[in-house]
């Protein structure tokens, strides 16, 4: 569902001409995604000052789909948005304790993560990163943002690193790797459908995997050579990882610190 929005954003970012009819359509969809399921192709064309044929061409170019399938993407995304917060589980009152409780949870999550991280495991991953010809970091939705964060950190250290956004590109990247590379897979649960599919593909190609996850019994963890565990603390009622992403980032930063120290030790 979020992959749909990510694709739209990538589609727009890939163009230097934002007056192009297809870009206008993409931006219109982003602004009106909740209304799109109830609209006809003629209404979208009129709103974008273009023709139905151009809308159809956009759908094909965007993801090789029909306008009907585009509306189904939007409908699925909208339904997911409606379940983003379980308001029955969320505290109804707004008071100063709300932010205090949040920071308490973040602090406890970081403490729990620190207790789980082992220097030996961090050093092992630092060595594997150093020896790898390329590191590919995988993650979906919020974990993808952390994957990109990891990519930029290691690129700044001169390490060849990739972190593709959409599912198709990640699977293509997995197929391009060899045993001299390293896959770093970031997933809080380690059990989502896509991560399971990705890990199976990596294992088929004998690609070494380093997992960052909160679940030691997950499919990801059971198929990884190296595992860095983090706190499984989360706040019920929210689909967005408002606690989990902080802990995951501390793990990524710990890898960065250990790798930097390792490189320094072998160069001096």
What do these coordinates show?
The protein is of the alpha/beta class and 268 residues long. The protein has 2 domains: 2-82, Winged helix-like DNA-binding domain superfamily/Winged helix DNA-binding domain (Arc Repressor Mutant, subunit A, Orthogonal Bundle); 102-267, Glucose-6-phosphate isomerase like protein, domain 1 (Rossmann fold), CATH 3.40.50.10490. It contains 12 helices and 5 strands. The chain has a 5-stranded parallel sheet with strand order 2-1-3-4-5, with helices on both faces. Helix 8 links the parallel strand 1 (135-138) and strand 2. Helix 8 runs parallel beside helix 12 (244-267) and helix 9 runs parallel beside helix 10 (193-204). It is globular and about 65 Å long. The model has no long low-confidence stretch (mean pLDDT 91).
Could you give a short description of this structure?
The protein is α/β, with parallel strands linked by helices and 268 residues long.
CATH class of the largest domain: Alpha Beta
> How is the biggest beta sheet arranged?
5 strands, parallel
**How many domain modules?**
2
CATH architecture of the largest domain: 3-Layer(aba) Sandwich
Shape: globular
Uncertain residue ranges: none
- What pattern of helices and strands is seen along the backbone? HHHHHHHEHEHEHEHEH
Question: Cα distance, first to last residue?
Answer: 48 Å
Strands side by side in the biggest sheet: 2-1-3-4-5
Total of DSSP H or I helical runs spanning 4+ residues: 12
Task: Let me know the average pLDDT.
Answer: 91
- The proportion of residues forming helix, as a percent range, comes to 55-70%
And the CATH topology of the largest domain?
Rossmann fold
* Range of strand content: 5-15%
Structural class: alpha/beta
**CA gyration radius, whole angstroms:** 21 Å
CATH superfamily of the largest domain: Glucose-6-phosphate isomerase like protein, domain 1
Tell me the number of strands: 5
């Amino acid at each position: 569902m979020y992959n749909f929005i990510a694709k739209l954003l990538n589609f727009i970012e890939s163009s230097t001409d934002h007056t192009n009819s297809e870009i206008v359509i993409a931006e219109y969809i982003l602004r009106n995604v909740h209304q799109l399921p109830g609209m006809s192709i003629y209404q979208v064309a009129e709103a974008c000052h273009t023709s139905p044929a151009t809308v159809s061409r956009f759908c094909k170019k965007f993801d090789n789909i029909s306008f009907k399938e585009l509306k189904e993407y939007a409908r699925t995304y909208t339904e997911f948005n409606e379940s983003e917060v379980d308001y029955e589980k969320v505290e109804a009152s707004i008071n100063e304790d709300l932010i205090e409780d949040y920071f308490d949870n973040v602090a406890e999550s970081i403490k729990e993560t620190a207790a789980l991280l082992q220097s030996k495991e961090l050093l092992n991953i630092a060595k594997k990163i150093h020896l790898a010809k390329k590191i590919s970091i995988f993650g979906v939705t919020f974990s993808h943002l952390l994957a990109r964060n990891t990519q930029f950190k290691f690129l700044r250290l001169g390490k060849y690193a990739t972190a593709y956004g959409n599912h198709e590109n990640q699977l293509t990247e997995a197929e391009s790797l060899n045993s001299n590379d390293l896959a770093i897979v970031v997933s809080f649960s380690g059990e989502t459908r896509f991560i399971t599919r990705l890990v199976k593909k990596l294992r088929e190609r004998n690609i070494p995997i380093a997992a960052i996850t909160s679940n030691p019994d997950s499919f990801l963890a059971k198929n990884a050579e190296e595992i860095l565990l983090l706190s499984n603390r989360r706040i019920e009622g929210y689909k967005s990882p408002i606690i989990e992403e902080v802990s995951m980032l501390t793990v990524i930063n710990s890898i960065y610190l250990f790798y930097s120290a390792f490189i320094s030790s072998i160069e001096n």
